[in-house]
Amino acid sequence: MSFPVALQLYSVRDAMGEDFAGTIKKVKEMGYDGVEFAGLFDNKHADVKALLEEVGLTPISAHVAYDELIADPEKVIADYAEIGCKYIAIPYAVEERRPGAELFDDTVEGIRKFAEIAKKYGIVMLYHNHDFEFKKVGDVYGLDLLYSTLSADELQTELDTCWVNVGGEEPAKYIEKYSGRAPVVHLKDFYMSGKGKPAKLYQLIGIDDGAQEEQNEEEAFGFRPCGYGVQDFPAILEACKKAGTSWVVVEQDNPALDKTPVECAQMSIDYIKEINK
Fold first, then answer.
1. Percent of the chain topping pLDDT 90
2. pTM metric for this prediction
3. Partner of 253 for a Cys bridge, out of 132, 184, 205, 210, CB 3.0 to 4.6 A?
4. What is the three-class DSSP state of 68?
5. C-alpha of 148 from chain center
């Protein structure tokens, strides 16, 4: 089997901000089957739905911050349901909301509330990990604690293969670990030198994590188009088949190799098409 492939539109966020409709059309021309949103750039939900129908792209999911969801969960979920999204993913957890932290129990209750509302609209809640969830809480990873605290009926996985790898686990094996609970998987490639992770890793994705900067650490880690870094994507796709994954989503947080974000997205889909048999 081959997987339908979506693009996480955060990958081309600058182009989206400059020309929303034109960039959506370009994504289709590149060869993608669907999209995952990271904001709507002030576009009306009905207009976004109409644009996707015109272009022929499937709205798979949307990344929506926990704080945005908790502020008005019914409206946020209904709006993305109107577009046609089948999933909503919480893309990131601030430190105090992470497994083992002071607000973790509150976060769990919030997700339970989201899941209950989402069911009414035919939407499934996901959580998109980074590498910090691979810190142990007791004798288990924080990510595993999250998924053992919430049922599969309440929260499914959106495993990001880059961050699983950076977190110290083999992406393919980790996807298989969550067989039946991994409907959407992020395909993300990267390069990391022998120096290991840079202290200011999350500044690469626009988040100030408070770490102290060291000279030349931007050379230690970098995102890459799929197929141009260290990831074993044939093994990852095979694991997705075993796990029952429905969609794979290309994401590249920042461009590389002197290419634009749009050029990187094209390089990724060209490579994935070669191996996605």
1. 88
2. 0.93
3. 205
4. helix
5. 20
